[in-house]
């Protein structure tokens, strides 16, 4: 009995230490539940208390907005009577998370609309935040936090980051809830972030294998339909189990090229057929060294002139051929290109040439 207990304990320890499949990804990291998403909110507000860095008097919508606000508060003024150098008009944006309840605090971001130079030190006045349906879902107010500064005089200005964009952490309070009752759902739909037939099939198989009480089937490359148990149950607990399931995603073979920054990214599945590659760099240097030619003493009619002198030098780096064998992996490709001394700029041209030759077994995508 003691030996059996020892063997059982060792087996349990081995199972606990058994590593997850290579490249396994949780379903919650590669897909999302349809309907469980945030909603964008927007509003127009005023930031006050600025130290002379607000909008100029020529910004008419700021003066009109300030005059309207003061009128609602019982102060009757006209836009012409206002000096707004300490006030800035801003657009306030926020995201209303799914399942937000009344009183939930969310972050808001504000961006200057006029010609204010900085929002540092300001306070956002009460601003209703509305959705696309025109309904008010949250109300924002609070001191503005700006991750930068701007200082200068008449001739020069020094700034860091974007002082005309600020945030109010937890500055909005949710006042209207979204009508969503997750517990009454009889079925769920999972949308994959990247549509793929193989990944959709693997997600459905993983769910059916690990959670037999559910019934999942892939409708298309990006959609997996899940039928919840008819007898009810706890859908939140089921979703917690479903999100933690791991699937090994199938990644398409791609080569991504960004010509603006000289960045080349190659996926693991990239393969190259047998091909020979050589890359050379041609450099041309032109140097202008003008010389002054002065006439001899007592020469009649002589003039001092500038004589141009141009020196042209042409150089070309000698590079040998590098042979990439059939089915070369990403590591072998990198080693061969490094042996050529290819720079990221050279890689862009080399990859395009290999693709044109029909030897690159991957999609070439240029950003």
Strand fraction: 35-45%
Assembly status: single chain
Q: Summarize the biggest pleated sheet.
A: 6 strands, antiparallel, barrel
Gyration radius from CA atoms, angstroms = 33 Å
**Shape by Cα distribution:** flat
Structural class per helix/strand content? alpha+beta
Spatial ordering of strands, largest sheet: 3-4-5-10-7-6
List the uncertain runs: 3-22
Q: Kindly, what is the distance between the CA atoms of the first and last residues, rounded to a whole number of angstroms?
A: 66 Å
Number of domains: 3
Number of strands: 25
* Number of helical elements: 7
Helical content stands at 10-25%
Global mean pLDDT: 77
Break the fold down into its secondary structure elements and pairings.
Elements: H1 2-16, E1 25-26, H2 27-30, E2 31-33, E3 39-48, H3 60-72, E4 87-96, E5 105-112, E6 123-130, E7 136-143, E8 149-152, E9 157-160, E10 165-174, E11 187-192, H4 197-210, E12 215-220, E13 223-227, H5 235-243, E14 246-247, E15 254-258, E16 263-266, E17 271-272, E18 275-277, E19 282-288, E20 291-293, E21 305-307, E22 310-316, E23 322-324, H6 330-339, H7 344-356, E24 360-361, E25 363-366
Parallel strand pairs: 15-25
Antiparallel strand pairs: 1-14, 2-11, 3-4, 3-6, 4-5, 5-10, 6-7, 7-10, 8-9, 11-13, 12-13, 15-16, 17-24, 18-23, 19-22, 20-21
């Amino acid at each position: 009995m003691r030996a059996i207990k020892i063997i059982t304990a060792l087996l349990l320890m081995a199972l606990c230490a058994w590593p997850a499949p290579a490249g396994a990804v949780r379903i919650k990291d590669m897909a999302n539940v349809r309907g469980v998403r945030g909603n964008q909110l927007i509003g127009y507000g005023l930031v006050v208390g600025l130290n002379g860095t607000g909008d100029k008097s020529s910004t008419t919508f700021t003066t009109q907005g300030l005059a309207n606000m003061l009128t609602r508060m019982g102060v009757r003024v006209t836009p012409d009577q206002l000096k707004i150098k300490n006030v800035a008009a801003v657009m306030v944006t926020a995201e209303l998370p799914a399942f937000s309840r009344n009183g939930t605090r969310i972050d808001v971001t504000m961006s200057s609309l006029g010609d204010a130079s900085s929002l540092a030190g300001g306070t956002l006045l009460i601003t209703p935040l509305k959705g696309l349906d025109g309904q008010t879902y949250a109300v924002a107010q609070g001191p503005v936090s700006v991750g930068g500064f701007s200082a200068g005089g008449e001739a020069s200005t020094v700034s860091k980051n974007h002082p005309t964009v600020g945030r109010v952490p937890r500055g909005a309070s949710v006042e209207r809830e979204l009508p969503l009752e997750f517990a009454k759902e009889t079925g769920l739909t999972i949308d994959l972030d990247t549509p793929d037939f193989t990944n959709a099939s693997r997600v459905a198989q993983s769910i059916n294998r690990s959670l037999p009480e559910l019934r999942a089937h892939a409708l298309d490359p990006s959609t997996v339909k899940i039928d919840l148990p008819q007898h009810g149950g706890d859908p939140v607990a089921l979703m917690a189990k479903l999100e933690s399931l791991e699937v090994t995603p199938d990644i398409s073979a791609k080569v991504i090229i960004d010509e603006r920054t000289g960045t080349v990214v190659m996926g693991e599945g990239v393969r190259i057929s047998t091909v020979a590659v050589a890359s050379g760099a041609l450099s041309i240097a032109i140097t202008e060294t003008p010389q002054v030619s002065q006439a001899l003493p007592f020469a009649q009619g002589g003039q001092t002139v500038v004589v141009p002198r141009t020196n042209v030098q042409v150089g070309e780096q000698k590079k040998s051929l590098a042979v990439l064998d059939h089915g070369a992996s990403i590591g072998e490709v990198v080693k061969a290109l490094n042996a050529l001394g290819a720079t990221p700029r050279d890689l862009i041209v080399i990859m395009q040439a290999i693709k044109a030759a029909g030897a690159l077994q991957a999609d070439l995508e240029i950003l």
